[in-house]
């Protein structure tokens, strides 16, 4: 298994928009902080098509699990390759009874060490144990000391004014767009960006092509507004990932999942998100599909599936809903046993 790091330049901005089902439009002032697995899949397919033409071979590799990937989450690190990586907060943590419930709900990401060591919310606001960054990223104090920083700004959400250009309307041309910004640090040796887990078992010739696609993500970028400079990266770095436990009693979802009917019983606690709905021409939109969000708790491994969201069911547009699961420390089950 590999870790793919998308290293950002200081000041770079990213826009990962959302479709709001009730309005059936993409609201530019609504932004997801990280790129989800389905967006990464789409980006890889698009790059493959630009470089090699037909992407059927690549899509088949995803469908047959020769390639499997997680969503991308935040990381910070230093020149010594020490890394602090964040994962989605287990959604069940919001059920914890605490006098700091608002702060608890605001946390969106927790570090790998918190998950691996099974550190429970009772200790999350203990200043001798944990540090809260930006109000929504939580890590152990020792993790910050490993990368030799006391305080760091991982990302900010910024809003910028925009003007509609391709319209005949004379009024309501102004609108706002929310982006994710990676602020510069005083220490130039600090690296920040996104990372995702990748499992691939491709034959050598296909692997070479796929690795080229990954490296091209730096220049092709991710998300919206790329023509204005959003979404680009300084570098794509691919390293071997630490081995994860093969079996566990419970798992944390690191991807958006569209489960088969026979897999639905595996979900214990989960959020639901709606994807799709983008307009592809003047009279057609992609189908919307409900997916289980990152941070879900599962009682066993499942596969998930890739679904057709083409308006005409012709397979032209597909939504990646394969499961990428992270084993949980057995201590985590106390979260729901106390509910």
From TrEMBL:
Looking at the record's lineage, which domain of life comes first? Bacteria
Q: Which GO terms describe its biological process?
A: defense response to virus
Q: Does the keyword DNA damage apply?
A: no
Give a Pfam family name: Csm4_C
Q: Which UniProt keywords apply?
A: Antiviral defense, RNA-binding
Residue ranges of domain Csm4 C-terminal in the record: 247-328
Q: Which GO terms describe its molecular function?
A: RNA binding
For this chain, the family text in UniProt reads: Belongs to the CRISPR-associated Csm4 family.
What name does the UniProt record give this protein?
Answer: CRISPR system Cms protein Csm4
Q: Which organism is it from?
A: Thermophagus xiamenensis
């Amino acid at each position: 298994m590999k870790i793919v790091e998308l290293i950002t330049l200081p000041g770079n901005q990213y826009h990962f928009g959302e479709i709001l089902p009730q309005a059936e439009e993409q609201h530019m002032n609504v932004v997801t902080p990280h790129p989800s697995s389905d967006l990464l899949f789409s980006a890889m397919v698009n790059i493959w098509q630009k470089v090699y033409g037909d992407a059927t071979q690549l899509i088949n590799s995803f469908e047959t699990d020769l390639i499997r990937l997680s969503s991308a989450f935040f990381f910070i690190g230093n020149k010594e390759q020490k890394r602090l990586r964040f994962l989605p907060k287990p959604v069940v943590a919001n059920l914890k009874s605490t006098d700091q419930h608002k702060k608890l709900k605001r946390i969106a990401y927790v570090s790998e060490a918190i998950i691996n060591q099974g550190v429970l919310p009772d200790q999350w606001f203990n200043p001798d144990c944990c540090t809260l960054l930006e109000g929504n990223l939580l890590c152990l104090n020792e993790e910050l000391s490993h990368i030799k920083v006391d305080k760091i700004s991982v990302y900010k959400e910024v809003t910028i004014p925009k003007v509609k250009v391709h319209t005949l309307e004379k009024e309501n041309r102004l609108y706002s767009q929310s982006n994710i910004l990676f602020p510069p640090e005083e220490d130039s040796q600090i690296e920040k960006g996104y990372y995702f887990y990748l499992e691939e078992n491709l034959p050598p010739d296909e692997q070479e092509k796929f690795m080229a696609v990954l490296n091209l993500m730096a220049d092709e970028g991710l998300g919206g507004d790329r023509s204005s400079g959003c979404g680009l990266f300084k570098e794509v770095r691919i390293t071997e990932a630490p081995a994860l436990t093969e079996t566990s009693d419970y798992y944390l979802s690191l991807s958006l999942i569209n489960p088969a009917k026979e897999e639905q019983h595996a979900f214990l606690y989960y959020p639901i998100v709606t994807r799709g709905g983008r307009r592809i021409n003047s009279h057609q939109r992609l189908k919307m599909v409900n997916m289980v969000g990152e941070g879900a708790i599962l009682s066993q491994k499942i596969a998930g599936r890739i679904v057709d969201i083409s308006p005409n069911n012709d397979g032209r547009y597909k939504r990646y809903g394969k499961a990428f699961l992270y084993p949980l420390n057995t201590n985590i089950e106390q979260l729901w046993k106390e509910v």
